[in-house]
Amino acid sequence: MHDIDVENNPLLTAAKSQNAKTVVSSVAQKRLLLVKCFTAVISCYLVYGVCHESITRQLYEGERFTFTLWLISVQTLTNMTVASIIVQLSSRPGEVDKTPFKYYFACALFFCGAIFGSNQALQYLSYPSQVVGKACKPIPVLILSGLVGRKSYNYVKYLCVLTLVLGITMFLYHPTDETVQKQGVGHGLLIFSLICDGLCGGMQEKVRSKFCPNENHMMLWTNLCSFLILFPFCFLSGDFFGGNAFIPRHPEILPRILAFCICSVAGQYFIFLTIKHFGPLTVSIITTCRKFFSVLFSVLIFGNVLTVQQWIGAIIVFTGLIVDIYFGEH
Prior knowledge:
The chain is 78% helix and 1% strand. With 330 residues, it is an all-alpha fold. The model is unreliable at 176-181 (pLDDT under 50).
């Protein structure tokens, strides 16, 4: 019997080479998917923000649309309806989402809590303070994804998150705009919002890792639960009747609401696609960067001048994003 020369065996060498090529190809495809999701989410929510501003800030014959709960309820209802149609058309025979309803309800509850805390904080804090506070969103998501979702990250991911938060804070913060005194209630609401963001991310990580639902099921059930939570408040607050009465008086607002809902559906699809493949921490980084890109694009389009602090912040953000895309998952 002759010993087989493992190191020089051409068949084994070819197999190792093929495995290496497969791994490299898989990593490249995952990076490409991340870039696609990042671009799609940023693009959809940039237009989403423009639509939202055109709905809520423009005067319609001297009247302003102020029915926020109505608008969010319609948004979640549209997302849920489209996701339901996609699930019906794309689900394979026997494919069932085994995620318990309570997990989706918890995700939706924390999501609604984050929105409530963030919006209410503006009554006590200046907008720059609120923006800078929400720029720290990836930090509680990073921490609570580990505590709740049992997700571990390497040191590069921690470094990238801290780098992005620092860069976005430097880019968005303008000390001269700070005219509102710091209020304990406002900061408490902001902290509450960040904790809800972290808990929502932790629950999403748990759902993703334990039950492996696809993006369409996550979108359907999360929006269904959000609608069930929001609609009673919409009804009791009077927004339901106010919004329904506003539309016939000013039908010209309908195309903007339609565009708003379309952008929401597209953006949410890519958000849940990102959660499925990369986790909620990556989503929190992308959505936090959206504010940065919104300001940056407005500067580039309208020719405003960036300060030295903003240029430094922009360089830090892009450095953090590039490092995270290439090294954050390894």
